[in-house]
Amino acid sequence: LAALNGICGSFAEAVRRMGEVLAITGKVLPVTEADVHLQAQFDDGSTVFGESAIFYHKKETRKRICRVVLTPEHPEAFPESLEAIARADLILIGPGSLYTSIIPNFLVNGITEAVKNARGYKIMIMNLMTQDGETEGYTASDHLRELLRHGAPGMVDACLANSSPVPEHLREEYFREGAGVMEVDREMVEAQGVKLYMAPLLSESSEYARHDSMLLARAIMDLWHQYGRNKLRREHYLR
Questions:
Q1: pLDDT, tens digit, for every residue of 130-143?
Q2: Which is nearest to 211 in space by CA: 223, 226, 225, 199?
Q3: Residue 122 and residue 157: Cα distance in Å, rounded?
């Protein structure tokens, strides 16, 4: 991608070309074309730049991340991405690294508003495990709270979390790294105005705690058929 960005006219064109090279089935759009860097502010007052530096600083100090911002702040969103969000029937947020992969998208000017105002059904997919150097000790409601705090209340319709037990040997592997199984605290999630749904999502064939792509897809589509279509019908009626 870095090489293509150097020879293409824009970052968006580089992403499009990369999609062709990898024969991607869907369409990948950048959230912004601006040259931005991620910055984290910790509860001890320290500020750290860069994804890997944020990870190592948190791991070494065990301080909590208070806020992440982009430098420069509030870059303009890629117009085609805003259009895609507005047209979408279904919007999925996550899974992924909370502070360094998910939240940064909502720091781009216009993305939070576009998702909040979109007619589509919006689902936050919870990680199976916490992440060492980023979210150790966090519950599902902590993840949701941080997303909405950096984005906006009312931006998510539902959360989807795993109900499958994580085998002991996997738990031990993550525990040695400082991570653990995600605690799904339903009442605290739903106290934020977001419905929580659970389904067996854990892959039984992976050597790590990973979502099973087919189980996850089936759970997403079940939610869509039960609730997403009704939301679209209501939106259409109101308009």
A1: 998 889 999 999 99
A2: 199
A3: 5
